[in-house]
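Forwarding the complex inputs:
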Amino acid sequence: MTETSILDVQNLNVRFDTPKGEFHAVKDVSFTMGREKLAIVGESGSGKTQTGRAILGLTQGRITADRMTFHNSNLLGLSPKAWREIRGRRIAMVMQDPKYSLNPVMTIGDQLIEAGQRHVGTVSPRQRGLEMLEAVKIRDPLRVFRAWPHELSGGMGQRAMIAMMLMAEPELLIADEPTSALDVTVRLQVLAILDDLVKTRNMGLIFISHDLNLVRTFADRVLIMYGGRVVEELPARDLYSATHPYTRGLLACAPEVDNPKKRLAILARDPAWADAPPARQPAGGRP
Amino acid sequence: MIDIDKLSVVFGEGEDRVLAVDQFSLRVEAGESFGLVGESGSGKSTVLRAVAGLVDTWTGDMGVDGAKLGRKRSRDFYAKVQMVFQDPFGSLHPKHTIDRILSETLIVHGLDNREARVRAVLEQVQLGPSFRFRYPHQLSGGQRQRIAIARALVLNPRIILLDEPTSALDVSIQAEILNLLDDIRTQLGVTYLLVSHDLGVVAHMCNRFAVMRQGRLVEVAESGHLGTGVLSHAYSRQLLLASKGYDRALVDTFSDL
Amino acid sequence: MISASFRNWLLSDVPDSRFQARMGRFYLGWLTFARNPLAMLGLFILILLIVMAIFAPWIAPHNPLWGDLPDRLLPPSGKFLLGTDDQGRDIFSRIVFGARTTLYIIGLVAVTAAPIGLLIGTTAGYLGGWVETALMRLTDAFLAYPKLILALAFAAALGAGLENAVLAIAITSWPPYARIARAETLTVRNSDYVAAARMTGAGPLRILFGHIMPMCIPSLIVRVSLDMAGIILIAAGLGFLGLGVAPPQPEWGSMVSEGRSQILEQWWVCTYPGIAICIVSLGFNLIGDGLRDVLDPRGK
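Prediction (whole assembly, three chains):
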C-alpha cells in the first residue's frame, strides 16, 4: 500500500428520476483510496452498487460530485470515447454472477483476447490470455481457454471473469459482490486471488459486499453505507469497535458459528442515519 | 419423526444421468430442529424435495411419523408436512393476493372458517390484517418470506421443511425471520428440517446437523460442538474454518480444487 | 376524469377487499396503457368499430341490402358519401353494417380459438409425457399448412356461411396459441410457486386452472389481439372467394371482391372497404402492442 491516492471522490451524488419523483440513491459520498483493498458494505438499497457503478459512469442516474478524479484525471462529464479509454483498461469491473457477465456464445479464450485487444504488448494475445488464466490459479489453462462459459463451474467462471479484467492490466478493480454466488471454500479461493493480485500487481480494489464478516477479514478499510450515505469509515480490523449504531446493529444480528447467541439482535433502523453527516474515525485510525 | 433410509435420487438419463443423492440415511426426532449443510451440488435441497414429494425419481425408504411414504403423497401428508422455499420472490404466485395464497390450502383441504384462520396466521407471523389483500410485489423480501411461513403454518403441520429460508435476505432481515422461526417452534413444537449453506445459520437454529457432500452424508454432529470446532471429518472442518471469514494462509490448506 | 379519492382508493397499498385489490391492479395497467398514444389510437378505432356496429341502423343513411339500379356505380357525392356499387347500394352504409359482421367474426374466433389453444397448450406442458407428444403433434399437423389454405379447405367442406367461416377460422387459429401456452407452461411448471401449490395437496386440475393458466393468459391476450388483423384478413379472404357471408349481407372482404371488376373505372367500390379492413387491422395491432407493455413482464 502506498500513501498516494489513485481515486479521489468528493461528495458524489447519484439521483434517479422515477414516476414517483426523484430517488436519491447515493448521497454525498466522499473517499480517497490508494493501492489497497477498500470495502463498501451495506444492505440492499444502501447505494453501494450505485457508488461502484458511478465511478465507471455506468449508472442510469444523474451523477454529480464536487470532485471525482482518477490519477488526477477528471472522471466527471467524460465523452463516451474518453470513457472507453478508461473502462476496462485502467478501471475494470467484476460483477456478481459470472453466468450473466460472460458471453455465452464465445469461448473463454476469444473473450480473453477481445478483452486484451487494445493492450499493446510484446507477447501474443493468446499467450497473454493463457498467462492470465494461470494468474487466477486455473490448473488447466488450455482447457479453460477453449471452453464455453456453460462448461465452467461458478468458481471457474468467476476466475475467468477476473482473468479477463486483468488482460488490460487495470490499476483499479471494482468487484461488486464477486463471490456471493459462490460456495464458501471457492469464495475464499477467489478472494485469495484478488488479494494476491492487489499485492503483486500493485492494484487498487474496491470490494462491494453485504458480508461484514468477510469484509472484516479481507479488506484494509471499510465504508459502511446506509440509505445512500456513508455512515461510517474505519479500518477493517477495527470493525468490532465500530461506533455507529447501524454498524453495530449489523454485527449483532448475524449468527456466528463460534459465538452462539440465544436470540439474534434485531436492528432498529433510525431514518436519521440516512440524513446525518458521515461519522469519521479520527485521522490516526486511517492507514 | 422423519426417517430416511438409503435414499438415492437420480436426475436425467443416459449421459446426463446425475446421482444427486447417494444412499443417504437420516433420522430426525420429533420436536427437533435438524440442519442439512453442504455446498451447491451436495444434494441437500434434493433430500428436502424428496421428502416433500416434489421429486419422483427416488429409491430407498422414507417415513414420516411412522408412516411409510409412497411416490404419491396424500392430502393428509401435506396437512402434516409443509415447506418454506428459498426465494420469497419465486414461491408466491405473482397474480394471487396474499388472501388467496393463504386460503388456497384451506380450500383444498375443505376447511371452514377460512377468514379467521387467515387472520390468525397473519398474526402469527407478525403481519397485520392490512396485508391480506396485497399482491406479493407490494411486499418487501422479508414480508414475503413471512407470508411463505404463514402459508406453511396454515394447516398446523407437524413438520416444516425449510429450504435456505433466509439466503435471499439481508442479514438484519434474516435475524428477524430466524427469530420468528425460533418462536414458532417453541410455541407449536413443530419439527424443522433446515437446509442451508450457511453454517452460522445452522449452528444458530439447529441442535443437530448433517454435513453433505456430493450427494453423500459426511457426518452428523451436534451444534454445541461447532464452537470448539470438534468435527471428525476433514471436509466438515474445512467448511467450518471457511465460514469464519477470510484467511490467506487457510486458503492454501484447502484440498480439492 | 377520475376523482382524487377514487384514485387513492384504487392505488391504495393496503386494499381492504379482494375487489379493491383487483381494481387497483386493473387501474395500474390502464395507466401504463394510457401512456402509449398509439395504443390509445388503437383503442379509439376499436371503440369506433363497436359504436358503428351497435348503432348501424341510425348511422347508415341508406339501406345496406337493397339499392336502386339507376343509382348504380355512382362516385362519392353528398348523397352517397363513398359512392355506390354495381347494384346501386350505398357503400358507406354497407361498410357501417359490415362492422357488425367483422366484429362478430373476430369476437367469436377470439372466444373459441384462444381457450382451445390455452387448454391444449397448458395441459400438454404441465402433464408432459405421451399426452404432450400427442397434443403437440396434433398442433404441428395444423401448423404445417398455411392458415388461409386450411381455412379455405374447412370452409369449402362445411359450406358457405358466416358461422362456417368463423368455425373454419377458429379451427385454424388455435395452434399458435397452444404453442405459446405450452412454452409459457414449461417455464412456469418448475417454479417454486407451483411446487408450493403442490405442497398444499392440490390436484393437477386445480394447479392447471388456478396457477398455470393465469400466467399464460397475458401473453395469449397480446398474441390474440395481434392476430386479430390476420383474422380479419382471412375472413375477408373467405368472403372474397365467396366462402364467407351469404350475399346480400355486407361483409368487407366480399365487398372488395365484388368491386374488383370495376377496379379501374369505379375505384371506390373496392377501395373503401379495403381501407376499412386496413384501419381496423391497424387498430388491433396497436392495441396488441400496448397490451404487451402492460401484460408482458419481460417486455419491461
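The two ends of chain B are 38 Å apart (CA to CA).
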